[in-house]
Amino acid sequence: MKVSFKPVLALALAACCSLAQAADLTVMTSGGFTAAYKRLGPQYAAKSGDTLTTVLGPSMGKAPQAIPNRLARGEHADVVIMVGYALDELIKQGKVDPASRVELADSRIGMVVKQGAPKPAIATAAQFKQTLLAAKSVAYSDSASGVYVENELYKKLGIQPQMAPKSTMVERLPVAEQVAKGEYQIGLQQVAELLPVPGVTFVGKIPEELQSVTRFAAGIPVSAEHPAEARQLLDYLASPGAQADVRASGLDSVPR
Length: 256
Description:
The protein is an alpha/beta fold. The protein folds into 2 domains: about 1-105 and about 215-255, 3-Layer(aba) Sandwich (D-Maltodextrin-Binding Protein, domain 2); about 110-210, D-Maltodextrin-Binding Protein, domain 2 (3-Layer(aba) Sandwich). About 35% of the residues lie in helices and about 25% in strands. The protein is built from 10 helices and 12 strands. The strands form 2 sheets. The chain has a 7-stranded mixed β-sheet. It has a 5-stranded mixed β-sheet with strand order 8-7-9-6-10.
């Protein structure tokens, strides 16, 4: 899936930026940062004159849309925005310039139910555990948050045997969309991926002592066609001026 962000109108750009210098940047971004990026991308495009062609895909997993799999197929990107440790793996593989790495935001896991359904109690670990045990079905993503739920969270709560038969890892598709359709009773995913989806009620973040905080980061592939312009975009996304939009999307600013 591709989404293009183009300047809405030609602005009088600063002397350092002329239309002749404008670049067409291809940005691959994963779900957790996408809501913030959809706010910030058009702003940057209007200010810089650059065109941002956006390619969506998870940070990891077997889906062909996953960013590592796209790069492995030779797909072009000037910027990749993804889970930090998945980006680090691409750096180890020599696919992303290590000097380009920029930390962008922290993401926490939340819960949704179908709109109109009773809102369960999850304020404490005991309440959250009971809500999961009482649920008929639970869905989570095939990215960082879902991997944590399946491999660690259930074990921490001591309920893995009870949850395994009624839990589903949803590949690529937004978990909240499946909950809105009535496919699953409860959805767990990063808050920033839950909030934009209609047809669900956001219950809240899971208790802090059970959280897995995912750091989102960005980098520039070694094959980028416009590395200088890509660096300017990353500086903008990480800037103090971008933080209000980052937080409004459900993410937390990275401590600086």
